[in-house]
Amino acid sequence: MSTARHTAHAELTDPPRSCPDLDVRDLEKRTRLMRIITRLIAVSDLGSREIARRAGLPMQKISDLLSGKLEHLSVDELRLVYRTIDPSGSPP
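-> structure tokens emitted (92 positions)
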């Protein structure tokens, strides 16, 4: 008996796989904030460690942000980092 037949049949009957973290609007917000924040970090006098300390986040979160790993940061965390770097501005 072929296992390919069983796999093909299982794919037709299984519900589609989805990931709750892949909400398009949320991803767009996080991407936009990430771009703004990375620019602010580049022109800021603050280092990554200082930003992490002031925001109360682990340094790894800032490293993830600078590496483009958006799945590790929520919109709220990104807004917190934004306010840490630019306290006078309001995040988009």
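The longest helix spans residues 24-43.
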